[in-house]
Amino acid sequence: MDYRLPTTVVPMRYDLRLEPDLEAATFAGDETIALIVKEPVQAIVLNAAELQIQSVSIENAEGLHLQGSVALEPEMERAQLLFPAPIAAGEWRLRLRFTGVLNDRLHGFYRSTYKDAAGVSHTIAATQFESTDARRGFPCWDEPAFKAVFGVTLVVPEGLAAISNTAPIQASPVEPGRRAVTFADTIRMSTYLVAFVVGELEATEPMMVGSTPLRVWCVPGKKHLARFGQLAGVFSLEFFEGYYGLPYPGDKLDLIAIPDFAAGAMENLGAVTFRETALLVDEASASHAELQRVADVVAHEVAHMWFGDLVTMAWWNGIWLNEAFATFMELLAVDAWKPEWQRWVTFGVSRAAAMAVDGLGNTRPIEFEVRAPRDCEAMFDLLTYEKGASVLRMLEQHLGADVFRGGVRLYLDRHKYGNAETTDLWKALGDASRQPIPEIMDGWIFRPGYALVSVQPEGKGLKLSQRRFRYLDGDTTEAQRWRIPIALRASVKRGLVEKHVLLDGDELTVPLPAPADWVILNAGGHGFYRVRYEPPLLKRLTGALPRLAPIERFDVASDCLALAQAGTMGATEYLDLTARFVDETDRNVWAVLTGAFAYINRIIADDLRSGLEALVRHRVRLAAERMGWEPQPGEGELDRQLRGDLIRTMSTLGNDPATQTRARTLYARYREDESAVEPNVLPALIAIMATSGGEEEYAEFLQRFKSARTPQEEQRYLYALAGFRQPELIRQTLERTINGEVRSQDAPFLVRAMLGSVYSRAMAWEFVKEHYEAMARQYPGSAYRRMWEGITALVSREWAQDVRAFFASRHIVLGGRTVEQYLEQLEVAVRFQERERTALQAYLIQARRQFGK
Ligand SMILES: [Zn+2]
């Protein structure tokens, strides 16, 4: 099927008047579209979905006026506009009147509701048009290359805020109790960036960045949570104006928190929408992770105002460039704003998550051909954002930051107000750097997967070789090779040697002045590849861990885990390796180790769990005792977060009674005096209370979720509900995922968490099998897709067969290769389980004897 619209008719300008009825959850629209008809047409084809079109007419400057009729094509989400005579080439004005429904699916023009402090329900109308849902708000040429100017008027009841992409220029009463708010013309932009928000919302005072006022909007009563997000916005806007060398393309910038929101945020030009947790936060009570989330998302969206909004991909295959670039810029900006957060080190966690998907046979290239809109939805994944940002960072480091920025400026200046392709960015970067960018980049962008670089001593130097990394056996004759800029650091007799080499064939010999005592590849950690050290080299390297940077230690732990999952390293060998990290001080490295323990926890039989718990206690105890329970003078924010993480790991995966008791005591004090607990420790306490909690704690947490004072508090108590282990409480939480008590933006993630826990996964799986159709109806598509990731934790041969049979017999379309990826990840885990069963059994029984009490 060809989903693309004909290009014979091109919109130049939309004058849109929309009147939402929040009570009835409907809206009425009237639009006039200035068109250029390039060659005579019998019919005009544009996108429309779930809209009723009441009237169509077209006229030109010569006074020709034709009434038309409409043939809707719901399958294609299009409307054919038919006229009694052909429409000649030239300029025309098309007028349409239409009505639609404010839906509950969090896309198109939709309805979000919230209860105020008195329990009274309120409604907000908001939009989410990316990727292809502007057509649910108004009939339009809903493809990114059809850029046009938008002149918007919203007719709203008095007392309600009305927000769109630009500043309001006029407001006039239309009838008693209603007013028409007209907004300034937008720049030429794509339909997916148009936004309307109507409701009882309040705004902060604007902060000025040059001539741009920047405000945060939220539901009444939450304005005191807006400051941090606003400061992040102000910093980002200034930072990007400097980086891009172009002024902000809008006339104001509103950051708007919407109570129901499917994604994290949406970069509508001048009217960025967010889910509340990504914008509103109480600095005093938030954890580091919660603050970082707000800074990240705000910076990401502001980066898009240029990269995405001012210059836009020509079609959805280019979405990766939008998202990868915004992610890369988000990290640059946050790193500049809060250097102490070490944002590029923390990014290692995200890079590793992308590598976990990209090591599958069912991965995909970053950029691929997109035909159906559904395929484009599936592009919003780890490969687009995290792998994309990783390879851009790799390129930036390779070219030098200034040269790279020069190329980006050239690209934006050349294509502003227009559309561009990946090759246009390569061209600009090539012009700025005088280097052959496509030759370096094409292997990373247009081909799937990444390399495993093996390293072994050869003479006095080293031999490097590459092949594709795969978790499951692939085609062994596969000849895919990458051009890999490799940074390495070796310890030789006289000191440290640093080298930068390019591995572009099968093998490369790197001479050294003397044999290396130890060597670290991917020095600095910017490369998107994994490293396998020959065993003696690995042994010596892990003996030198304190001499490595945190991101390098992170990569050693993460790459070895992947090798174990792929069967190249034994599971027990990996668990031995974790003993080398007992003095580890970096929270990201600990995140890998904890992730590894959790992975093994999912594959072992129940009777081995106490052995794993003993092992975890042994590995974590030193670090946990060093961190203690109270903040120490001079420590950084990352240390505070590590403290919370270690307490949680000790208590849950380690099942340590002393830590649990102390956590319960401390939580009891928190009930009396909230200042008694450091914000980074509190989330751990809540999680711990849940794992050992009964009905009383459950009722308390449910109440705290419902009456939460901040979006973060709400999330903590909500996800804590997934941590209760008693079957009756698990059942209750599952029920709440479909009975409307939990917002549909959150419920799918709650389901995913329950599928992922060894205590609730069996019940959760049965529940999902029974209710997946209701879930598909209730949940936003993107979140529903991610919910299914939970099946990767159903690790047993029987479950895996059941899961496969389920997907084979039900029609569950998640777009792209999402289902295949989840099934493959499950298969990787099941094979790991089958391969390692005997060895792990002996190892964990021994661990229980050695480390248990
Ligand atoms: Zn984005």
What distinguishing features does this structure have?
10-stranded mixed β-sheet, 6-stranded mixed β-sheet, 42% helix, 25 helices, 853 residues, 29 strands, 23% strand, binds zinc ion, alpha+beta
Would you count the extended β strands for me?
29
Specify Rg, calculated over alpha carbons. Answer: 28 Å
Morphology: globular
Low-pLDDT segments, ≥5 res:
none
As laid out across the biggest beta sheet, the strand order is 3-6-5-4-7-2-1-10-13-12
Average predicted confidence as pLDDT: 95
Give the end-to-end Cα distance, rounded to a whole number of Å: 65 Å
Question: Outline of this structure?
Answer:
This protein has 853 residues and is α+β, with helices and mostly antiparallel strands. The protein contains 25 helices and 29 strands. The structure holds zinc ion.
Structure, described:
It is a single chain. The chain is α+β, with helices and mostly antiparallel strands and 853 residues long. It is built from 25 helices and 29 strands. The strands form 6 sheets. It has a 10-stranded mixed sheet with strand order 3-6-5-4-7-2-1-10-13-12, with no helix packed on it. Strand 17, helix 1 and strand 18 form a beta-alpha-beta unit. Helix 3 packs across helix 6, helix 14 packs across helix 25 and helix 18 packs antiparallel against helix 19. It is globular and about 90 Å long. The N and C termini lie far apart (65 Å). The model has no long low-confidence stretch (mean pLDDT 95). It binds zinc ion (ZN). Zinc ion binds next to helix 2 and helix 3.
